[in-house]
Amino acid sequence: VNGVNAHPLFVFLKEKLPQPSDDAVSLMGDPKFIIWSPVNRNDIAWNFEKFLIGPDGEPFKRYSRRFLTIV
């Protein structure tokens, strides 16, 4: 997902949507959990980040792990 061996799909998504729309400032809570290199601001910070893709196949919005999907 992150680092030099990131899957091309995630590289594409991170290029199109560099940060979550609902949390554009934080990367990770504790730096000891960053186990990849290089570290970039557009990295996926947590396994519950979500990408919304439009019907045309274009990435539309990126949400952080803090975004509530069920209310």
Question: Explain this structure to me?
Answer:
- Belongs to the glutathione peroxidase family.
- This is Glutathione peroxidase 1a.
- With 71 residues, the protein is of the alpha+beta class.
- The chain has one domain (8-63).
- 13% of the residues lie in helices and 13% in strands.
- It has one helix at residues 8-16, and strands at residues 50-53, 59-63.
- It has a two-stranded antiparallel ribbon with strand order 1-2.
- The N and C termini lie far apart (28 Å).
- The relative contact order is 0.25.
- The model has no long low-confidence stretch (mean pLDDT 84).
User: How much is the average pLDDT?
Assistant: 84
Q: What is the number of helices?
A: 1
Order of helices and strands: HEE
SS strand fraction: 5-15%
Domain count: the total is 1
Summarize the structure.
By secondary structure, the chain is α+β, with helices and mostly antiparallel strands.
Identify the notable features of this structure and list them briefly.
alpha+beta; oxidoreductase; 71 residues; signal; Glutathione peroxidase 1a; two-stranded antiparallel ribbon
Task: Describe the protein's topology.
Layout: H1 8-16, E1 50-53, E2 59-63
Antiparallel strand pairs: 1-2
Subcellular location: Secreted
InterPro entries: Glutathione_peroxidase, Thioredoxin-like_sf
GO molecular function, one term: glutathione peroxidase activity
